[in-house]
Specification:
The protein is mainly α. It has 14 helices and no strands. The two termini are 30 Å apart.
């Protein structure tokens, strides 16, 4: 049993770590609220100025569209691949899974030029396709999380469904997925945050199409122009991070549960 002194020390340490984590956010909010020039109203005026200068609604729409479509593609492809690795037995399954996992360690710079060349020949540069189509081809990290979670589910559930006449796809949709919402939410949050922070790929493929760029690229361009006005830069930064923070706090319980259970091997 934990004593009162140990509980007090634990809470004190947690509060200390929380203060360290919240300090940068507090500094961003403080600077964003300041006014360092006569032509800037300060306070909410900074946010209003940023809203108009960088065309925030357009950037927000582009980012949300990319995030939603990419998340749908990621979930569809990764769930199917993870289900195959978790439930089907076929020759070379473990070897193929190791090959898939090895792609995590492949530097992005290695595939950058070949990938760009392919997209140029396909005529996709200047569109969202280079950012969206790869999401419909499973990535190793999310497949690993989903596969580990699926393997914690008893195979007896599959056998019972087969007795009732269910096929592989019906088992996936009626048995596996209803019990896997925690890891599905975790993967969705991962991809949403990844897409929200995506900078280099949009800069590479959409440099000639600023009207299609997401919020991270627009924020970088804004920073390069208004770097001498830190209150505007920090206001733009706060506007950029507020929505992912809300999504994370809303999905925090399912997110943490999905991450924890994926580490349990059946």
């Amino acid at each position: 049993m934990i004593s009162r002194a140990e509980r007090t020390v634990s809470y004190a340490l947690l509060c200390l770590f929380a203060a360290f984590a919240l300090y940068p956010l507090l500094m961003i909010l403080t600077v964003a609220w300041q006014s360092e020039s006569t032509d800037v109203a300060g306070g909410f005026g900074n946010f209003a100025d940023v809203w108009e200068i960088i065309d925030y609604p357009r950037l927000l729409f582009n980012t949300i569209a990319l995030a939603i479509i990419g998340t749908i593609g990621t979930l569809l492809s990764c769930v199917l691949v993870a289900y195959g690795f978790a439930r089907f037995r076929f020759p070379g399954r473990n070897f193929l899974f190791l090959v898939l996992l090895s792609t995590i360690f492949l530097p992005a710079a290695v595939t950058l030029i070949p990938t760009y060349t392919i997209f140029v020949k396909l005529g996709w540069v200047g569109t969202w396709l280079p950012l969206l189509v790869p999401a419909f081809f499973a990535n190793a990290y999310d497949v690993f999380l989903l596969r580990q979670y699926f393997m914690t589910l008893p195979r007896e559930l599959d056998d019972a469904a087969k007795i009732d006449g269910a096929g592989p796809f019906r088992i996936l949709t009626s048995v596996i997925l209803p019990q896997s919402w925690a890891v599905i939410v975790a993967v969705a949050v991962f991809h949403l945050v990844y897409t929200w922070n995506l900078y280099f790929e949009p800069l590479l493929y959409l440099s000639a199409k600023p009207e299609l760029q997401p919020i991270a690229t627009g924020l970088a361009a804004f920073n390069s122009i208004y770097g001498s006005s830190p209150e505007l830069v920090q206001a733009a930064t706060l506007m950029t991070i507020i929505l992912p923070m809300i999504i994370f706090f809303m999905a925090q319980k399912a997110f943490m549960r999905g991450i924890v259970i994926t580490g349990v091997e059946k």
